[in-house]
């Protein structure tokens, strides 16, 4: 496992620490925090109330999920599915839930989210760090394997076509966030704010009663914050082109979100897509899909649903955010910001 992008991820952790410093009397005034490296990313948890054991339970849940879900752990459910040669493989309820959500989001987004894009992700070197621009021939060879509709689920088994492989990197951290929050709640915490590689999720109230304030990074200067939003119990999950990217020998930048339509890094006008909603798994799946869809596709999907909010940054440096964020969105950048409205 490679440890990359230390600086931006640490920045997210520091932001998180800043969110939780206020305290008042009562059980919520006691706060506990922990930094963890797992799933190839830096994670921070700050919980209020209860005891340190809530953090122990949350940390254990993260490591258990990594063992089940990681494509780089040979005994994980995902590795067993990938080496199953098309046969059904018995998996955990966690794996089943995430694969079902991935198929559902694949259908919702017309294949913009497609977990069977893994052979392409691997070919570009995004799992190993051995970056490489694949030849057009190699991409044409791999593209026919990419089709989430060929994943079959029966009972608690998952089967792929023999030429397919999956990875859950697009949505498993969001699910992990939901499970971390559940573990904290079940183990006595009253409130928490967590950052899993920049994916921020909250529960309960901040000790001073004010809303949680979460910053979203500027994709053009990732060391800076671009905006803040004030939220209640929510997930704020971003997909961007500024992490897990490399400059090719041709001098161009290539990033880890692949457009399943052509096998290249998605380049449809969006450089950062943030989804704000109730559940981490939904927001994580959608953030990756919206990045692939581009502005019009993403706005259309939001208008048809509106159970979440969205902040998009375009490659010509414009911010577009959905109307539910009006009043809580603060622009900290020089970019113009427009509201995406229902009509
Ligand atoms: P997101 O936008 O949420 O997801 C992008 C990721 O989804 C890509 O990195 C790719 O993996 C995948 N993807 C790309 N395009 C699509 C698409 N169109 N549809 C569906 N999926 C797509 N990284 C390592 O380098 N080494 C590891 O050992 C490792 N272990 C991990 C273990 C777990 C359990 C998890 C959840 C992640 C792990 N990662 C590892 C990181 C992972 O591979 C991704 O890089 C990471 O999840 C990207 O998250 P994100 O929020 O930055 O981007
Ligand atoms: Mg995602």
Task: Explain what you see.
- This protein has 343 residues and is of the alpha+beta class.
- The protein is 31% helix and 26% strand.
- The chain contains 8 helices and 17 strands.
- It has helices at 6-19, 52-69, 77-82, 93-108, 118-123, 136-142, 172-186, 280-303; strands at 31-38, 41-48, 89-90, 152-154, 157-159, 191-196, 199-203, 212-218, 221-231, 235-240, 245-247, 253-255, 270-277, 309-314, 319-322, 329-331, 337-340.
- The strands form 4 sheets. Strands 1-2-6-7-10-13-14-15-17 form a 9-stranded mixed beta sheet, sandwiched between helices.
- α2 (52-69) packs antiparallel against α7.
- The longest helix has 24 residues, at 280-303.
- Mean pLDDT is 91; it is low at 1-26.
- The protein binds flavin-adenine dinucleotide and magnesium ion.
Which regions have little confidence, pLDDT < 50, spanning 5+ residues?
1-26
* Elements, N to C (H/E): HEEHHEHHHEEHEEEEEEEEHEEEE
State the major sheet. 9 strands, mixed
Count every helix, treating DSSP H or I runs of 4 or more residues as helices.
8
Strand fraction = 25-35%
Major beta sheet, strand line-up: 1-2-6-7-10-13-14-15-17
By DSSP, the count of extended strands is 17
- Describe the global form: globular
């Amino acid at each position: 496992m490679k440890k990359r992008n230390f600086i931006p991820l640490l920045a997210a952790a520091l932001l998180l620490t800043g969110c939780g410093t206020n305290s008042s009397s009562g059980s919520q005034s006691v706060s506990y925090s922990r930094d963890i490296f797992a799933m190839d990313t830096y994670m921070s948890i700050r919980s209020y109330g209860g005891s340190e054991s809530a953090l122990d339970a949350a940390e254990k849940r993260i490591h258990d999920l990594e063992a089940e879900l990681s494509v780089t752990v040979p005994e994980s459910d995902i590795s067993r599915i990938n080496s199953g040669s098309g046969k059904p493989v018995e998996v955990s309820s966690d794996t089943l839930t995430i694969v079902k959500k991935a198929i559902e989001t694949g259908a919702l987004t017309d294949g913009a989210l497609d977990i069977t894009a893994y052979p392409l992700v691997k070919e570009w070197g995004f799992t190993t760090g051995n970056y490489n621009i694949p030849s057009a021939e190699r991409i044409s060879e791999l593209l026919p394997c990419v089709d989430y509709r060929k994943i079959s689920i029966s009972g608690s088994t998952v089967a792929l076509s023999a030429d397919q492989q999956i990875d859950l990197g697009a949505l498993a951290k969001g699910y992990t966030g939901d499970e971390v929050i559940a573990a904290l709640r079940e183990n006595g915490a009253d409130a928490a704010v967590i950052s899993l590689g920049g994916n921020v999720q909250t529960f309960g109230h901040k000790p001073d009663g004010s809303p949680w304030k979460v910053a979203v990074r500027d994709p053009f200067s990732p060391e800076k914050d671009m905006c803040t939003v004030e939220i209640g119990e929510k997930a704020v999950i971003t997909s961007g082109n500024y992490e897990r990217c490399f400059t090719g020998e041709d001098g161009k930048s290539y990033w880890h979100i692949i457009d399943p339509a052509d096998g290249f890094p998605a380049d449809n006008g969006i450089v950062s897509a943030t989804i704000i909603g109730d559940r981490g798994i939904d927001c994580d799946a959608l953030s990756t899909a919206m990045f692939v869809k581009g502005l019009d596709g993403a706005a259309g999907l939001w208008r048809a649903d509106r159970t979440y909010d969205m902040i998009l940054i375009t490659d010509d440096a414009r911010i577009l955010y959905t109307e539910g964020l009006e009043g809580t969105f603060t622009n900290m950048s020089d970019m113009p910001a427009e509201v995406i409205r229902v009509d």
